[in-house]
From TrEMBL:
One of its GO terms (molecular function) is DNA binding. It comes from Rhizobium grahamii. Residues 136-201 form the HTH luxR-type domain. GO terms for biological process: phosphorelay signal transduction system; regulation of DNA-templated transcription. The keyword Coiled coil does not apply. Residues 7-120 form the Response regulatory domain. This is DNA-binding response regulator. SUPFAM superfamilies: CheY-like (SSF52172). CDD domains: LuxR_C_like, REC_FixJ. Pfam families: GerE, Response_reg.
Amino acid sequence: MYEKDHTVFVVDDDKRVRDGLTEYLEASRINVATFATGREYLDAPKPDTPSCLVLDVRLPDVDGFELQAQMSDHPRPPIIFITGHGDIPMSVRAMKLGAVDFLSKPFQEHELLAAIETALQRDWTARQERAALLELQAKLDCLSARERDVLPLVVSGLMNKQGAAKLGISEITFQIHRGNMMRKMHADSLADLVRIAGKLNIPITHSRHGN
């Protein structure tokens, strides 16, 4: 993972901590960018590469949990919390909010490295999944209005005759729209289309048996 493009962001108001982590992580061939406050981090331009955030819980402008909440509406890098004033409830809260790890200062260097490796891998995977979803959405956007009507009926398992009746069109016309839709969605089978529809949150709203 370290040989790929990546960035580890460190947000800590203690310059000694920032400098120490920078020296150690760069020696481990990890790209590092440091910030003294949450606002500095939020305002800074960020490369579009796998990343993670090593975040101090206590900051002068906003604490780490508040900063995490401010980023909840957008894809954000996985977070590793660090603190010199931690306790069990704080650790539990961090993990419930999706943190990769919660490390109390002074922590072992190998613990931080392991957490960073996990976080970078998690972000790389999330980016791959988002890219795949965008590709599926682009295919969906290419469907005609009628093909969009056909898709949930096919996913629901309706036979061509049933789907045609639902739309008030002939069975042959339904089959044509179905074929075009399957081709545009790059679905080789019904099972493949069901998988795609699930990723796009297309609901199954009809029943083949009319229940």
